[in-house]
Design goal:
Layout: E1 3-5, H1 16-25, E2 30-34, H2 37-40, H3 55-64, E3 68-72, H4 88-91, H5 103-120, E4 131-135, H6 147-159, E5 166-170, H7 174-180, E6 186-189
Parallel strand pairs: 1-2, 2-3, 3-4, 4-5, 5-6
Amino acid sequence: MISGAFHYFRTHPEQWRARLHWLRLMGLDSVESYVAWNLHEPRPGEFDFTGFGDLERFLREAHEEGLGVVFRPGPYICAEWDNGGLPSWLTGKPGIRIRTADPAFLEAVDAWFDELIPRILPHLASRGGPITMVQVENEYGSFGSDARYLEHLRDGLLARGVDVPLFTSDGPADHMLTGGMVDGAAATVNFGSRAADP
């Protein structure tokens, strides 16, 4: 797999096709993208998958360009995106403990995944679509080590029908890897520009 990042929500939808085509011309066979929760659910229970948020259009166009998709739904994405993609209406709740097994946080994540995951199921490679892999959280070992939280996310993806390989992605330090790994998901490492360093 030779993949490059392209975040659909950062580019005008009318430019998606050309950008995806250029990725293919560069010799890539896959594209990876996060999903910015705060773009799609700006207010609790109000979902928007239109315009810059037309995720399914993006997935269709990637498929039509012959690209696999490495799908990174978060819920936290970092990506140098506002609040790491977490909605401000959620992170602003007094006492909430984000990116943990805090029931208040998990309840919001579950409601979000109940909306998001059914939209992407037809696009899984197992159903003839482009999504070949799905990430559990994002670089979680740089933040914490709440195994129950990661297990909840993994189990939630599986229970909602995700049947392509799951993976985690963390920095190369031992504490990052052990904090971010979860059984049933392949552990991958982010080296940045220093992959050759010992």
